[in-house]
Every structure is written in C-alpha cells, then in structure tokens.
Amino acid sequence: MTLQIRAARVDDADDIARWNLAMAWETEGKRLDPETLARGVRAVFAEPRRGIYLVAEQAGVPVGCLMITYEWSDWRCGDFWWIQSVYVAPDARRGGVFRALYAEVTSMAERAGAVGVRLYVETGNARAQATYAGLGMARCHYAMYEAMRVP
C-alpha cells in the first residue's frame, strides 16, 4: 500500500497524544500523564515555533507520526532539525513508515536550508538504532545530559 506523508492537523492531536503515550511505555517503560501530554501536543499546533508534526497515512488511515523541533547552531549559522516523538502503529511496523517520514523530513530540511537532521534514541533500543544507521545516519560523539525541573 502507498504511504502518504502530510503535515499533521489539529484533529490529529488525539492520535498523536495516544501514540506518544504508547511510545513512552514501549521504549522507556514510562507512564506519561495523559492530560499534560495532550496539552503539550496541542501547544505545538498553537505555536508553530515549537515544531511541527508529520503524519503517515496508509489507505487514508494514520499509522505513524513524528515531531520536528529546531535547534539554532551558532557554530554553523543554521538550524538543526530534531526528529522526536517517533511512533509507528504496531501493525504498520517494518513496512517503510519511518523511512517515508524520514525522507520527507530530510527533503523539507534541505529545502529550508537546515544544516542537519538529528535525533536521539534510547540507548537500549538496538532495532531503532539499526534503522537509523540503515538510513545513513551516524552515531555522533555527544552524550546527552539533562537536569529536569519537576513541578
């Protein structure tokens, strides 16, 4: 079946939030607060500077998504596009959904003049890492650190 990649619409927000809940549980064993997540997804639609979502459809049915956010690089005088919140519905996995989403992201980033595309992946997610390497992405030499502010 042919995959269509499109910009997400606000009426996709419930699917995106549901997929993010599933992704957090599947990849990290984390239970996210559904109401906070729903507000977070809708905040992207409310303020495009925060990012954009892309949705993959198969026969008109949404089967996956990702979010793109932006990071300014003063070293390169340009934006890196970060791929985040990747999810593919279980019955659509291994069917080229992420490959199609990634192709659209890289095409959009090139047209926009981005200096690169990045993503982070859970250290134990070998299958995702193999997928990204198979698409020509390379592991970078940075480790990620964070200091969470918990309300």
Write a concise synopsis of the structure shown.
The chain is α+β, with helices and mostly antiparallel strands.
The end-to-end span amounts to 45 Å
Envelope shape: globular
Mean pLDDT: 94
> How does the major sheet shape up?
5 strands, mixed
Oligomeric state of this protein: single chain
* Rg from Cα: 15 Å
**Helix amount:** 25-40%
Using DSSP, what is the number of strands? 5
The helix-strand sequence is EHHEEEHEH
The CATH architecture is 3-Layer(aba) Sandwich
- Order of strands, widest sheet: 1-2-3-4-5
Please mark out the parts with pLDDT under 50 across 5 or more consecutive residues, or reply none: none
Task: Assess the beta-strand content as a share of residues.
Answer: 25-35%
Q: Overview of this structure, please?
A:
The chain has 151 residues and is an alpha+beta fold. It has a single domain, classed as Gcn5-related N-acetyltransferase (GNAT) (Aminopeptidase), CATH 3.40.630.30. Helix content is 36%, strand content 26%. The protein is built from 4 helices and 5 strands. The protein has a 5-stranded mixed β-sheet. Helix 1 packs across helix 2 (34-46). The mean pLDDT is 94. Pfam families: Acetyltransf_1 (PF00583). Keywords: Acyltransferase, Transferase. InterPro entries: Acyl_CoA_acyltransferase (IPR016181), Bact_Acetyltransf (IPR050832), GNAT_dom (IPR000182).
